[in-house]
Design goal:
By secondary structure, the protein is an alpha+beta fold. The chain has helices spanning 7-41, 45-49, 65-79, 125-132; strands at 52-59, 82-85, 90-93, 99-110, 138-148, 151-161.
Length: 172
Protein backbone atom coordinates (compact mmCIF):
# COMPACT_ATOMS: atom_id res chain seq x y z
CA UNK A 1 0.00 0.00 0.00
CA UNK A 2 1.37 3.39 -1.04
CA UNK A 3 0.79 6.30 1.29
CA UNK A 4 -0.22 9.55 -0.31
CA UNK A 5 1.86 12.60 0.64
CA UNK A 6 -0.32 15.46 1.71
CA UNK A 7 0.31 18.66 -0.31
CA UNK A 8 0.31 20.89 2.77
CA UNK A 9 3.22 18.88 4.24
CA UNK A 10 5.27 19.47 1.09
CA UNK A 11 4.43 23.20 1.18
CA UNK A 12 5.37 23.40 4.85
CA UNK A 13 8.72 21.71 4.21
CA UNK A 14 9.46 24.04 1.30
CA UNK A 15 8.63 27.05 3.48
CA UNK A 16 10.84 25.80 6.32
CA UNK A 17 13.82 25.15 4.03
CA UNK A 18 13.40 28.49 2.27
CA UNK A 19 13.15 30.29 5.60
CA UNK A 20 16.30 28.60 6.94
CA UNK A 21 18.17 29.42 3.74
CA UNK A 22 17.18 33.09 3.84
CA UNK A 23 18.11 33.35 7.54
CA UNK A 24 21.50 31.85 6.72
CA UNK A 25 21.99 34.31 3.86
CA UNK A 26 20.96 37.25 6.05
CA UNK A 27 23.48 36.19 8.70
CA UNK A 28 26.19 35.75 6.05
CA UNK A 29 25.48 39.25 4.70
CA UNK A 30 25.60 40.76 8.20
CA UNK A 31 28.93 38.98 8.75
CA UNK A 32 30.22 40.37 5.43
CA UNK A 33 29.43 43.92 6.65
CA UNK A 34 31.14 43.20 9.98
CA UNK A 35 34.19 41.85 8.16
CA UNK A 36 34.32 44.94 5.92
CA UNK A 37 34.14 47.22 8.98
CA UNK A 38 36.97 45.30 10.66
CA UNK A 39 39.06 45.51 7.48
CA UNK A 40 38.41 49.26 7.29
CA UNK A 41 39.52 49.71 10.89
CA UNK A 42 42.71 47.80 10.00
CA UNK A 43 43.17 49.93 6.83
CA UNK A 44 43.20 46.69 4.81
CA UNK A 45 42.31 48.04 1.36
CA UNK A 46 43.08 44.74 -0.41
CA UNK A 47 40.84 42.84 2.01
CA UNK A 48 37.99 45.26 1.38
CA UNK A 49 38.40 45.02 -2.39
CA UNK A 50 38.37 41.21 -2.09
CA UNK A 51 34.79 41.55 -0.79
CA UNK A 52 33.72 42.96 -4.18
CA UNK A 53 32.91 41.41 -7.54
CA UNK A 54 35.29 41.87 -10.48
CA UNK A 55 32.82 44.32 -12.10
CA UNK A 56 32.25 46.31 -8.87
CA UNK A 57 31.07 49.91 -9.20
CA UNK A 58 30.97 52.59 -6.48
CA UNK A 59 28.74 55.68 -6.50
CA UNK A 60 28.98 58.58 -6.56
CA UNK A 61 31.40 58.74 -9.42
CA UNK A 62 31.00 55.37 -11.09
CA UNK A 63 34.30 54.14 -9.63
CA UNK A 64 35.69 50.70 -10.46
CA UNK A 65 37.76 48.60 -8.06
CA UNK A 66 41.06 50.31 -8.88
CA UNK A 67 39.57 53.79 -8.44
CA UNK A 68 37.83 52.75 -5.21
CA UNK A 69 41.23 51.66 -3.81
CA UNK A 70 42.55 55.20 -4.30
CA UNK A 71 39.56 56.71 -2.49
CA UNK A 72 39.96 54.26 0.40
CA UNK A 73 43.65 55.11 0.67
CA UNK A 74 42.86 58.85 0.89
CA UNK A 75 40.07 58.26 3.44
CA UNK A 76 42.29 56.13 5.67
CA UNK A 77 45.03 58.74 5.49
CA UNK A 78 42.54 61.46 6.46
CA UNK A 79 41.03 59.60 9.43
CA UNK A 80 44.12 57.81 10.74
CA UNK A 81 43.20 55.20 13.34
CA UNK A 82 39.45 54.82 13.16
CA UNK A 83 36.36 52.93 14.26
CA UNK A 84 33.38 52.12 12.08
CA UNK A 85 30.07 52.19 13.95
CA UNK A 86 26.79 50.99 12.46
CA UNK A 87 23.49 49.36 13.42
CA UNK A 88 22.19 46.06 12.05
CA UNK A 89 21.96 46.29 8.26
CA UNK A 90 18.61 46.12 6.53
CA UNK A 91 18.83 43.06 4.27
CA UNK A 92 16.48 42.48 1.35
CA UNK A 93 16.99 39.11 -0.30
CA UNK A 94 15.66 39.54 -3.79
CA UNK A 95 13.37 36.99 -5.34
CA UNK A 96 16.05 36.37 -7.94
CA UNK A 97 18.31 33.83 -6.30
CA UNK A 98 21.77 34.88 -5.12
CA UNK A 99 21.13 38.65 -5.06
CA UNK A 100 20.55 40.98 -2.16
CA UNK A 101 20.30 44.65 -1.28
CA UNK A 102 21.64 45.98 2.01
CA UNK A 103 21.25 49.41 3.53
CA UNK A 104 22.65 50.85 6.75
CA UNK A 105 23.86 54.13 8.23
CA UNK A 106 27.37 54.29 9.65
CA UNK A 107 29.88 56.57 11.30
CA UNK A 108 33.60 56.75 10.90
CA UNK A 109 35.14 58.12 14.08
CA UNK A 110 38.67 58.58 15.33
CA UNK A 111 39.80 55.48 17.22
CA UNK A 112 39.81 57.15 20.66
CA UNK A 113 36.42 58.85 20.29
CA UNK A 114 33.55 57.09 22.01
CA UNK A 115 29.82 57.24 21.53
CA UNK A 116 28.37 55.34 24.47
CA UNK A 117 25.30 53.11 24.17
CA UNK A 118 25.45 52.63 20.39
CA UNK A 119 26.20 48.91 20.81
CA UNK A 120 22.93 48.52 22.71
CA UNK A 121 21.07 49.97 19.73
CA UNK A 122 22.49 47.55 17.12
CA UNK A 123 19.05 45.98 16.51
CA UNK A 124 17.32 49.38 16.48
CA UNK A 125 18.54 51.38 13.43
CA UNK A 126 16.05 54.22 14.09
CA UNK A 127 17.15 54.57 17.72
CA UNK A 128 20.77 54.35 16.59
CA UNK A 129 20.24 57.26 14.17
CA UNK A 130 18.56 59.35 16.88
CA UNK A 131 21.40 58.69 19.33
CA UNK A 132 24.04 59.68 16.80
CA UNK A 133 22.23 62.97 16.23
CA UNK A 134 23.26 65.79 13.97
CA UNK A 135 26.67 66.36 15.56
CA UNK A 136 28.50 63.60 13.71
CA UNK A 137 29.59 62.82 10.15
CA UNK A 138 26.96 60.30 9.23
CA UNK A 139 26.80 58.25 6.03
CA UNK A 140 24.62 55.54 4.59
CA UNK A 141 25.65 52.63 2.42
CA UNK A 142 23.35 51.01 -0.07
CA UNK A 143 24.95 47.82 -1.30
CA UNK A 144 23.92 45.39 -4.00
CA UNK A 145 25.44 41.99 -3.33
CA UNK A 146 25.48 38.72 -5.16
CA UNK A 147 26.53 35.23 -4.21
CA UNK A 148 29.60 34.11 -6.19
CA UNK A 149 30.87 30.57 -5.65
CA UNK A 150 29.02 30.42 -2.31
CA UNK A 151 30.34 33.75 -0.97
CA UNK A 152 28.45 37.05 -0.81
CA UNK A 153 30.33 39.85 -2.62
CA UNK A 154 29.43 43.50 -3.18
CA UNK A 155 28.58 44.25 -6.81
CA UNK A 156 27.81 47.93 -6.31
CA UNK A 157 28.00 50.41 -3.46
CA UNK A 158 26.34 53.77 -3.08
CA UNK A 159 27.71 56.06 -0.38
CA UNK A 160 25.31 58.78 0.75
CA UNK A 161 26.23 61.57 3.16
CA UNK A 162 23.76 62.85 5.75
CA UNK A 163 22.97 66.47 4.87
CA UNK A 164 21.06 67.42 8.02
CA UNK A 165 17.66 66.95 6.41
CA UNK A 166 18.25 63.54 4.87
CA UNK A 167 20.80 61.58 2.92
CA UNK A 168 22.24 62.67 -0.41
CA UNK A 169 21.14 60.35 -3.20
CA UNK A 170 23.26 58.34 -5.58
CA UNK A 171 22.04 58.02 -9.12
CA UNK A 172 20.58 54.58 -9.65
Amino acid sequence: MVKRVRPWIVLLLIFIFASCSSKGDEKALEEMVEKAANLAEAHDIGGIINLTTKDFEAQPGGLNRREAKKILFMAFRHYGKLKVLYPKPSVDLESEENRSTLSFPFLIVKKNQSLPALEKLYDDPKGWMEKVGEGADLYRFKLNAEKVDGDWLVKSACLERFTGIGFSRCKE
